[in-house]
Amino acid sequence: MGYAASIALATSLHRRAAAGGGRPGDGGERAARHFPLRGALSFSRKFHALAALIAALVLASCGAGNGRFRIEGRFRNLNRGEFYVYSPDGGITGRDTIQVVDGRFSYNVPLSGNATFVLIFPNFSQQVVFGENGAVVKVSGDASHMKEMEITGTDANELMTKFREAANRMSPPEEKAAVAGFVAENPDSPASLYLITSRLLQTANPDYAEAARLLRMVLKDDPANGRVALLLKQVERLRPSTVGGRLPQFAATDTEGRSVGRKALSGKLNVVSAWASWNYDSQNIQRWLRRYRKAKGSQLAVVSICVDADTALCRRHLRADSIDWPNVCDGRMWATPLMAVFGLATVPGNIVADASGKIVARNLGSAQMRELLEKEFGKIETTGRRLR
């Protein structure tokens, strides 16, 4: 029997089982238990073989299957809604939307190896899930306490759940030390690479030196890991992008289809600003930059990065706020390559450099950005919408 035919038969039997008292989604054991076997208690060898084949097919139909990966979840206090999922290492292209119905959801994708998936919820909190070929991962928790979510089904996800539960009670320095300990104990786990990235690199104040040290530890355990080797090179290149360092070279395409590079930042003062439609402070920074651009022209050069998933929404905001400088928005949210180039991982997030390209400030709030602009260019009169 071919693979497609086997799946069709298993699906048919699973439905018949549900009609006999089981619920769809209860799992292979329940479906097999309720499958109505009729006839005499003594069966021929042929029928026994058929029954064994049927049971195997039913069980296979309830798993992820070879070449696929599935995430199943159940949330308390969230009966219906949706959230996004993307993969920073290519598990899927772009982003998908996952629907929650009656507090449950299921997400099934082709996957031939391992990949990292990031779930982004309506409040923009994130949760990582590590995918493996043929695995089924279970997600459960209270929608009002996403940090306490439990993710099980593979060793990497269970290790990450335990770390997250412990980290919820730690101070930032304690958490950084815990990351180092975790990597030392589990250098071969995908959770180690994720923790280095999320806890040491994608923060307001990246620790490039510690990240590089831990990446070398992971690479020593697996010298053939090209992804880790590439990340280590990127981290070593990013170390100069701290305050006192230099603006890096970059290449991107803005929302108007124009090429944008390092030459776009050639003013007396230069700002790279990360923003989002859902974050007021970052939008306020955009408006202050617009005011000073209007008043000072090319003396202030700006390139902005929007981490919205919806590129059309980004363009609407740009038009509404009369933003005319290059804005990059590719719908990849936090995985936008330009965020990594500048070592940005927060919204608002920004880099400010002087005329020579030397970085003089990072990750200013709207009030701090206003103070810096006033110090550099003097105060300007503001009209219309009030800015703070």
List the helices and strands and how they pair.
Layout: H1 3-19, H2 28-34, H3 45-62, E1 68-76, E2 80-86, E3 95-101, E4 104-110, E5 114-120, E6 126-132, E7 136-142, E8 150-152, H4 155-167, H5 172-185, H6 190-201, H7 208-221, H8 226-238, E9 251-253, E10 259-261, E11 269-275, H9 280-296, E12 300-306, H10 311-320, E13 327-328, H11 337-341, E14 349-354, E15 359-362, H12 366-377
Parallel strand pairs: 1-7, 11-12, 12-13
Antiparallel strand pairs: 1-4, 2-3, 2-5, 5-6, 7-8, 9-10, 11-14, 14-15
Helix pairs in contact: 1-2, 1-3, 2-3, 5-6, 6-7, 7-8, 9-12
What does this structure look like?
Helix 10 links the parallel strand 12 (300-306) and strand 13. The protein contains 12 helices and 15 strands. The protein has helices at residues 3-19, 28-34, 45-62, 155-167, 172-185, 190-201, 208-221, 226-238, 280-296, 311-320, 337-341, 366-377, and strands at 68-76, 80-86, 95-101, 104-110, 114-120, 126-132, 136-142, 150-152, 251-253, 259-261, 269-275, 300-306, 327-328, 349-354, 359-362. Residues 1-61 and 384-388 have low confidence and may be disordered. The protein is an alpha+beta fold.
